[in-house]
Specification:
Shape: globular
Structural class: alpha/beta
Number of helices: 17
CATH architecture of the domain at 1-7 and 34-149: 3-Layer(aba) Sandwich
Radius of gyration: 24 Å
Strand content: 15-25%
CATH class of the domain at 1-7 and 34-149: Alpha Beta
Strand order of the largest sheet: 3-2-12-11-13-14-15-16-17
Number of strands: 27
């Protein structure tokens, strides 16, 4: 392969690595000592991959390039290589079966698949099925640009590229419909990154432990992209493992990473639940528990998002770690929109705080409310100081379109350009603080004229019995009342005898208005089924009651 380029697009977030040079960019866990990559190497490895993609063409001109890698350095150098080559990146999920991978590749009309030797045979099968080429990237250090030619990062010339070009297509979780390709531009991505870096005060002194799947914005933008923008270290675990996370935090700043210990951790509520479970079931010695608490305390920020954080999980995690989790709200189409403040004493559990800088929001009252609207629209007896409705969002971080779905894109926006999130929120008019009541399609249960938040009921059920590990509440069709309220519960393994249905209802009545009490209950032995991002698909859970 001949060397034919030494250029980079003139986009801020693609130029950022140029300034950090010999600082560590990425670490592949558990090979912390041998697989540490300076920003200089990251940038040139990315350019090397761009060279492969652009060998016969100066610019991919937004061609879609699907890529399939684990959570490691190969992933990030390939993603940035696609962007440096002028392509549109389409990340594939490691956890998806072949037919789902093929759907993403085919639906996005990807022109090629990028992967490494570890995953080549699997991708080759898909490439053959779809009749598109599969490219195996070289191993780290097997440069297509001679090392003598990339030793000086300042030599890279910048070429102009429109920041409104397509950059990334991430497919939705598919919890309410078939996955759609969310198209974000370079300008969208830069706005999303800049907002979080400023608000959460990222610096080059930060070191984040990355455990999230890299086919959703939580991992791609909030973790990896923000780290790169800031010149921070991003340490990538192949997958989340409670023991490995705890052990890694115990040593960081004590026996390793003395100059730059791990300072950030971002995850979904399920991960925090698993960390609690691991500590409670495996660590009984008070000295060891104190060491773990101190290990968590060394982090300057721990964030929870992607789904609602139960109050019980928030409180239990604080008890074992001393950390008050920062709750935030976002989605694939808009990046992050709402966040609790960075100051710990200004965070309030069960809420998602306030709009992030640059994010405009509006609350759209629900239309076609029934005669009981004034009494129960927000499920409270006294709602004079509350505003409730669907959250609408506008700003430079909002996505461009659903890929080749013009009608779906038009339906996602109001006539005056506000994106309709589909999430029902409650705003405290005295403070401006927001709370998520749930998805209008699956989390707002309509029973006997009442509109009821499933998330509120879940929080109360989890709080009423510390032996309950997980809970999901959903609406089941009912000809007379519109919907029944159904609860699914998983008990902790230490619980010997689950409560009877009558006992369950009695306990619920002590905490909930009568019309919010579940009238159906299902107890599962193992955890509630979830998707790759540890989210519950409530439409799938309906099948458990059939």
């Amino acid at each position: 392969m001949e060397y034919n380029r030494k250029k980079t697009p003139s986009l801020n977030f693609l130029k950022k690595p140029l300034k950090f040079k010999d600082r560590t960019s990425f670490i592949n866990y558990p090979n912390n000592n041998t697989q540490r990559y300076p920003y200089r190497d990251f940038f040139n490895e990315s350019q090397s991959i761009a060279n492969i993609l652009n060998f016969k063409k100066k610019d991919l001109e937004q061609q879609r390039v699907a890529y399939f890698f684990g959570q490691n350095f190969d992933y990030v150098r390939s993603q940035w290589g696609i962007w440096a080559a002028g392509g549109t990146a389409v990340p594939l999920a490691l956890s998806h079966p072949i037919h789902e991978l093929q759907y993403t590749i085919e639906n996005s009309k990807s022109s090629m698949i990028l992967t490494n030797s570890e995953n080549y045979s699997k991708m080759k099968e898909i490439g053959t099925n779809l009749n598109i080429p599969v490219i195996e990237i070289p191993k780290v250090g097997e440069y297509t640009i001679p090392k003598s030619q990339w030793s000086s990062m300042e030599d890279y010339k910048q070429y102009s590229i429109d920041s409104n070009r397509n950059a990334l297509i991430i497919y939705t979780s598919g919890t309410t419909s078939k996955p759609k390709g969310v198209v974000t531009t370079h300008a969208n991505i830069e706005a999303q990154i800049q907002t979080l870096v400023d608000y959460w005060k990222w610096t080059e002194k930060d070191h984040i432990l990355e455990v999230l799947p890299l086919h959703h914005v939580h991992g791609v933008i909030n973790v990896v992209s923000c780290a790169l923008w800031s010149g921070a270290i991003c340490e990538m675990m192949p997958k989340f493992d409670s023991k490995q996370v705890v052990d890694r935090l115990l040593e960081s700043g004590i026996s390793t990473d003395l100059d730059q210990p791990i300072s950030l951790f971002m995850a979904v509520p399920t991960i925090y639940s698993k960390l609690i479970k691991y500590v409670n079931e495996n660590i009984t010695d008070p000295t060891e528990r104190l060491a773990i608490e101190n290990a968590f305390k060394r982090l300057r920020l721990m964030v929870s998002g992607s789904s609602a954080l139960p109050e019980s999980v928030r409180n239990e995690f604080q008890a074992i770690s001393g950390q008050v989790l920062l709750e935030r709200y976002g989605m694939t189409e808009i990046g992050m929109a709402l966040s609790n403040p960075l100051k710990v004493n200004e965070r309030i559990g069960g809420t998602v705080g306030f709009p992030l800088p640059g994010v405009q929001i509006k609350i759209q009252p629900e239309l076609n409310n029934d005669d009981n609207q004034n009494n129960n629209q927000n499920n409270n007896d006294n709602n004079n100081n509350k505003e409730v409705g669907e959250l609408l969002v506008k700003g430079p971080q909002v996505f461009k379109e659903y890929f080749e779905k013009r009608k779906a894109t038009e339906e996602a926006f109001t006539d005056d350009g506000w994106f309709k999130t589909g999430d029902i929120v409650e705003k405290d008019l005295s403070t401006g603080r927001l709370k998520i009541l749930g998805r209008s399609s699956v989390d707002i249960i309509k029973r006997g004229g009442f509109k009821i938040s499933a998330l509120e009921i879940e929080r109360e059920i989890l709080d009423m019995d510390p032996n309950i590990q997980e809970c999901a509440v959903l609406g089941l069709p009912n000809d007379e009342y519109g919907q029944d309220i159904a609860a699914i519960i998983v008990y902790k393994k230490s619980k010997k005898q689950p409560m009877s249905f009558e006992e369950f209802k009695t306990n619920c009545k002590q905490r909930l208005a009568h019309y919010k009490v579940p009238n159906k209950l299902l107890i599962l032995e193992n955890e509630i089924p979830k998707n790759a991002m540890s989210k519950v698909n409530k439409k799938e859970l309906l099948k458990l009651f059939s």
